Amino acid sequence: MARERILVVDDEEDILELVSYNLDKDGYRVQCVATGEDALKAARAEPPDLILLDLMLPGVDGLEVCRLLKNDSRTASVAIVMLTAKGEEADIVAGLELGADDYVTKPFSPRVLLARVKAVLRRRSAEPVGEDDAVRVGDLFIHPGRHEVLAGGEAVELTATEFRILHCLARRPGWVFTRYQIVDQAQGPDAMVTDRSVDVHIVSLRRKLGAFGRHIETVRGIGYRLKEPS
User: Fold this and answer.
1) 61 and 10 in contact (C-beta within 8 Å)?
2) Interacting residues of 201 by C-beta distance below 8 A, sequence separation 6+
3) Is 21 helix (H, G, I), strand (E, B) or coil?
4) In terms of residue numbers, what domain contains 164?
5) Are residue 112 and residue 24 in the same domain, yes or no?
6) Residue 177's Cα: distance from chain center in Å?
7) Do 20 and 44 lie in a common domain?
8) Helix spans in 83-211 (H)
């Protein structure tokens, strides 16, 4: 049974009760606070394994809490899942670029929330993948040193930019990357990548990867992710 510690931050009492009940039932240790200030104090006093962080908080809002925690060496490695209202795409993008790991849109089902929490904790517990390490995601194999991509055992010819984008997504399967994060990873001496050109490269990648291309998922208003193998 899971015994990771989760800090839940939300100013709505019914949300705190719903989330804490379901997390506790699933075996997690739960602490609840209602303000950004209390979230910072609790996280710094005893860093949790994961923070469920509402963005719309009184006083210090969720984005500022995320920024401060990610810039603090004591809490920089803590996983953060944002709780957001519908229509807050700009805030979601900002949170992901500050270092948040994922987001869940309100209203949400407890099952979806638990699945997201488990997925983030599972990814965080895995060994980090180095820039030059070979990566395997299901039937997809990527070897940076050889600039080699195999999909179902078949070689796939990619441009240098396409290769860097695919490697970026594959190093963290399931993670949502904003277009700006992909641009940062995909820039190279051979080409200038912009947030608009990312979409064009993704279309080309999907086409070249054939049946595997469907695993590159569009997250509307945010960016892209490579689906985790089932």
Assistant:
1) no
2) 161, 162, 165, 186, 193
3) helix
4) 135-226
5) yes
6) 7
7) yes
8) 89-98, 110-125, 160-171, 179-186, 195-209
Separation of alpha carbons 185 and 174, rounded Å: 17
Are 230 and 183 a contacting pair, CB within 8 Å?
no
The pLDDT of residue 1 = 42
Q: Residue 19 is inside which H or E element, if any?
A: helix 13-25
Helix (H, G, I), strand (E, B) or coil at 99: coil
Do 22 and 99 sit in the same domain of this protein?
yes
178 in the same domain as 120: no
Residues 14-26 have pLDDT tens digits of 999 999 999 999 9
CATH number at residue 198: 1.10.10.10
The model's pTM is: 0.70
On whether residue 130 sits in a domain, the answer given is no
Return the pLDDT at 226. Answer: 93
Into how many domains does the chain fold?
2
- Residue-wise pLDDT tens digits, 112-137: 999 999 988 887 665 444 556 788 88
